[in-house]
Amino acid sequence: MSVDSLESPSEVIVRPTLKKHRDQPKKLTENNVGKYSSLYRYLLSTKSKQVIMTIDQIEAVLGFILPASARKYRPWWANALTNTQAKSWLHAGWEVDSVKLGEKTAFRKTGDEV
Questions:
Q1: What are the C-alpha distances in Å from 67 to residues 7, 19, 52, 72, 112?
Q2: 37-53: string of b/e by CB count within 10 Å (b at 16+)?
Q3: Which helix (H) or strand (E) holds 92?
Q4: What would the pLDDT profile of 11-51 be if each residue is shown by its tens digit?
Q5: Model pTM?
Q6: Which DSSP category does 63 fall into?
Q7: Minimal CB count within 10 Å: which of 20, 25, 66, 87?
Q8: Of all residues in the chain, what percent carry a pLDDT higher than 90?
Q9: Distance CA 114, CA 110 (A)
């Protein structure tokens, strides 16, 4: 088969680009973060570029105790949209920057506003 015999596709499918998570309507985003919506709202309203929160402060914002895995395992704090808890900070335009397990977590603002 020669290269000359290859045909161009008759139509090209163009998919729309994905919007940034924080550009989604708030109602839709809050539904996507489940029980972590209060952390989402807290971070969304925070004006600084970095915030360091103790486990107790995070739990106070949430109104419930974090699971034991949050205190023991770094992957719980991964910036991955497969985790409901991570959606709360990612959709608000933040990432986990560092974690001292069982003690505190540093979040940093992402995107254009940094």
A1: 56, 31, 19, 9, 32
A2: bbbbbbbbebeeeebeb
A3: none
A4: 544 444 444 544 544 555 656 778 999 999 999 999 999 99
A5: 0.71
A6: T
A7: 25
A8: 65
A9: 6
